[in-house]
């Protein structure tokens, strides 16, 4: 079994806990240790309790806040002789997520490679206009040209459609993109397609190696029906259930319709379905229609959460 520890001086580990759970849920076996905090066990005792519960067939990765600091020193001493325990010092959030999802079984070499990948996520943020767009399937112009080439497709597109009012953000970049092993991210939004500033901001979150295309809903529908899209693992992001319905009416056979984060930025009376999904009456009506097209539509914030079929919320 994989186990993880986040250990820090003071309350940094608690802050990481709230952020990490937002990104990956609460299903992982993670222990959070805060050292030298009033009301907490002494760090030596916290370490002792953790190692006492560690079984021979468990693998543990321990993240400490600072190489050479007292927490790191105490962990290193406690882990001596334990080949199934790995310590990473000076972590950041990308490193933690990279390691957690990077392998089923760890070795020293695997951990080192994953840490290097996570370190690459630390970068100086330049001017937004320096960020370039890469088209995963076709530009708007070539998509329009390919309309004549659209062919009937009876299989299932390897495409996930997600309703997420933030569109591209940390969960998408660091968790969903890895879960879906994406070739590309498509943003389908009529307003953002006309706003270069918003487009540049969204592109900042796109992981290296994954292409992005931001277009109107109609243009994205055309691209998804292009034969070139039928072999690509794509994540299509829309802001509202109504937009998801518009796209679903145009594109058959998508693999998964996911209602993720929606409703927090909307004013007016809303019905709370889950912690992350709050719908107005109009959006609820759109969900009813969406489920008629895609009965397996489900509410799921992060991949580790259980899928809750939308049908259970609209009876």
Automatic annotation (TrEMBL):
Which InterPro entries does the annotation name? Bacterial_PTS_sugar_comp, PTS_EIIA_man-typ, PTS_EIIA_man-typ_sf, PTS_IIA_man, PTS_IIB_sorbose-sp, PTS_IIB_sorbose-sp_sf
Question: What is the top-level taxon of the source organism?
Answer: Bacteria
From the record, give the transmembrane residue ranges. Answer: none
Q: What is its EC number?
A: 2.7.1.191
- Any idea where the PTS EIIB type-4 domain is? 154-315
**For this protein, what reaction is catalysed?**
D-mannose(out) + N(pros)-phospho-L-histidyl-[protein] = D-mannose 6-phosphate(in) + L-histidyl-[protein]
Q: List keywords of the entry alphabetically.
A: Cell membrane, Cytoplasm, Kinase, Membrane, Phosphoprotein, Phosphotransferase system, Sugar transport, Transferase, Transport
Tell where it localizes: Cell membrane; Cytoplasm
- Every copy of the PTS EIIA type-4 domain together lies at 1-122
Main localization is membrane
Taken from the record, one Pfam family name reads PTSIIB_sorb
Q: How does it assemble?
A: Homodimer.
Physiological role? The phosphoenolpyruvate-dependent sugar phosphotransferase system (sugar PTS), a major carbohydrate active transport system, catalyzes the phosphorylation of incoming sugar substrates concomitantly with their translocation across the cell membrane. The enzyme II ManXYZ PTS system is involved in mannose transport.
Q: What is this protein called?
A: PTS system mannose-specific EIIAB component
Annotated source species: Candidatus Enterococcus lowellii
Q: What is the lineage of its organism?
A: Bacteria, Bacillati, Bacillota, Bacilli, Lactobacillales
């Amino acid at each position: 079994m994989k186990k993880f520890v986040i250990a820090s001086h003071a309350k940094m580990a608690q802050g990481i806990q709230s952020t990490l759970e937002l990104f990956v849920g609460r299903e992982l076996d993670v222990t959070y240790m805060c050292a030298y905090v009033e009301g907490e066990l002494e760090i030596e005792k916290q370490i002792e309790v953790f190692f006492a519960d560690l079984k021979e067939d468990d693998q543990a990765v321990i993240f400490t806040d600072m190489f050479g600091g007292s927490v790191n020193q105490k962990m290193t001493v406690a882990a001596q002789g334990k080949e199934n325990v790995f310590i990473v010092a000076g972590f950041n959030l990308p490193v933690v997520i990279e390691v957690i999802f990077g392998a089923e079984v760890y070795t020293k070499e695997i951990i080192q490679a994953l840490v290097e990948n996570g370190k690459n996520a630390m970068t100086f943020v330049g001017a937004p206009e320096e960020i370039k767009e890469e088209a995963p399937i076709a530009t708007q112009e070539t998509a329009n040209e390919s309309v004549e080439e659209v062919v009937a497709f009876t299989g299932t597109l390897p495409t996930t459609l997600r309703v997420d009012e933030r569109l591209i953000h940390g969960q998408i970049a660091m968790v969903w993109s890895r879960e879906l092993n994406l070739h590309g991210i498509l943003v389908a939004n009529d307003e953002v397609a006309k706003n270069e500033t918003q487009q540049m901001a969204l592109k900042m979150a796109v992981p290296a190696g994954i292409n992005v295309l931001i277009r109107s809903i109609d243009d994205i529908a055309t691209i998804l029906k292009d034969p070139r899209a039928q072999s690509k693992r794509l994540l299509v992001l829309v802001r509202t259930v109504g937009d998801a319905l518009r796209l679903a009416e145009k594109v058959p056979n998508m693999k998964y319709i996911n209602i993720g984060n929606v409703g927090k930025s909307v004013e007016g009376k809303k019905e709370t379905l889950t912690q992350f999904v709050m719908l107005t009456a109009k959006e609820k009506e759109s969900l009813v229609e969406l489920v008629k097209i895609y009965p397996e539509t489900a509410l799921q914030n992060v991949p580790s959460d259980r899928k809750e079929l939308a049908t259970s919320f609209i009876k």
